[in-house]
Specification:
By secondary structure, the protein is of the alpha/beta class. The chain has helices at residues 10-29, 52-57, 74-92, 104-115, 135-145, 155-163, 179-187, 211-214, 217-231, 242-251, 267-276, 285-293, 308-312, 323-335, 350-360; strands at 2-7, 36-41, 65-66, 96-100, 119-123, 149-152, 172-175, 203-207, 235-239, 259-262, 279-282, 298-300, 316-318. The strands form two sheets. The protein has a seven-stranded parallel sheet, sandwiched between helices. A six-stranded parallel sheet has the order 10-9-8-11-12-13, sandwiched between helices. Helix 1 (10-29) packs across helix 7, helix 3 (74-92) packs across helix 4 (104-115) and helix 4 packs parallel to helix 5 (135-145). Bound molecules: uridine-diphosphate-N-acetylglucosamine.
């Protein structure tokens, strides 16, 4: 069996690492039924600390194809990706194309494959924010509809698809847990303190990169004013996505010394930050769950989240970009006794379950 894996953005490298390792494990036990995996990197994320570091740390096989498509508008980026992925698929003739999450690389991979009648598997399927202004929401809805098998991380994801009428559509749906939980469990022992952080310091971990926050000056100002206020109480460590760095410069927003802005970190460093912080303030999808994996309360600066089970279990608090709400929630969370013991994202063997299903399908 031949699989082409499409990746392009930072969180996809983490997710693909889990499945690649499960494929290797399958191969070591099934010499007569080997899976060949070829990795296509679209190039969407290209900085050393947004891309290469993940391949190195997590031992992801080097991409067989690097398409070098980045820094374009959504249409141009997605269009060029489809064209170049199609050329790879014509040459390689895989049995499956494996796509992850909700990025432009995801929809481009799925669309190129589907039009060539190549089977598509979508990992992290069924998630919805119900906000059609988010490019991610458009990407995930379209990708789900044209996939052949949907690997759903949560019960909510299964329900979302049912509500969209998937019972009447011939697409296999599997609730298999979350690959990011596998990654967090497997790599925990390799967590590494980022050089820039002082040992024993008390801090809040924050990341901000969503287009709906970064591209709206009023929202970005409000979020950063809140972070400044919080940083007067407890240091804020902020590994900054290049998109946000650019926007802060464009809008003339400056940060004080209480906010420690650092370059984007690798996965092992992120795990260290998660293990050692007091709480998390973010607009990232992945980090909301990772906060939970490491028993940290999370304040989400978005209007909605795909990971609603975190809200229901009161480990995550959705506050939008309102300055006062962010600060008040931060102060409230600090006084709370939060239970993190529930199991929401599988048992850490999602990668193996995905490979097993692909072999069977
Ligand atoms: C993308 C995904 C989002 C995911 C996020 C993870 C889409 C629509 N969005 O958003 O779902 O949560 O990745 O980070 O696919 N840039 C650099 N260096 C890099 C990467 C990006 O300078 O290594 C710049 C780009 O040139 C661009 C900006 O950052 O100007 C945004 O990058 P882009 O890939 O468009 O979207 P993300 O915000 O990263």
């Amino acid at each position: 069996m031949k699989i082409i894996t499409i990746v392009g953005a930072r969180p996809q490298f983490v997710k693909a690492a889990v499945v690649s390792r499960a494929i290797e494990e399958h191969n070591s036990k099934n010499q007569d039924n080997l899976i060949q995996e070829l990795i296509v990197h679209t190039g969407q994320h290209f900085d050393e600390n947004m891309s290469d570091v993940f391949f190195e740390q997590m031992n992801i096989p080097k991409p067989h194809y690097h398409l070098e498509i980045n820094s374009l508008t959504h249409g141009a980026m997605t269009g060029r990706m489809i064209e170049k992925i199609e050329a790879v698929l014509i040459k390689e003739k895989p049995d499956w194309v494996l796509v992850y999450g909700d990025t432009n690389s995801t929809i481009a991979g799925a669309l190129a494959a589907k039009k060539m009648h190549i089977k598509v598997a979508h990992v992290e399927a069924g998630l919805r924010s119900f906000n059609m202004r988010m490019p991610e929401e458009v990407n995930r809805i379209l990708t789900d509809r044209i996939s052949d098998i949907l690997f759903c991380p949560t019960e909510t994801a299964i329900t979302n698809l049912k509500n969209e009428g998937f019972d009447a559509i011939d697409i296999k749906r599997v609730q298999c847990g979350d690959v990011m939980y596998d990654a967090a469990m497997y790599y925990t022992e390799r967590s590494t303190k980022p050089d820039a952080i002082a040992e024993g310091s008390d801090f809040v971990l924050s990341t901000i990169h969503r287009q709906e926050n970064t591209d709206d000056k009023a929202k970005l100002v409000s979020i950063f004013e809140a972070l400044e206020e919080i940083a007067k109480q407890q240091k804020v460590v902020l590994p900054l996505h290049p998109r946000t760095t650019k926007k802060l410069q464009n809008f003339g927003i400056e940060t004080s010394a209480n906010i420690q802005v650092i370059e984007p970190v690798g996965y092992f460093e992120m795990i260290w930050l998660l293990s050692n912080c007091k709480s998390v303030i973010t607009d990232s999808g992945g980090l909301q769950k990772e906060a939970f994996f490491f028993d940290k309360p999370c304040i989400t600066v978005r209007e909605e989240t795909e990971w609603v089970e975190l809200l229901h279990n009161k480990v995550n608090f959705l506050v939008g970009s309102d300055k006062k709400k962010i600060i008040d929630t931060f102060n409230h969370v600090n006084t709370m006794n939060i239970d993190f013991s529930m199991n929401l994202y599988g048992t850490g063997n999602t990668g193996a379950l995905i490979v097993e299903q692909l072999v069977k399908a």
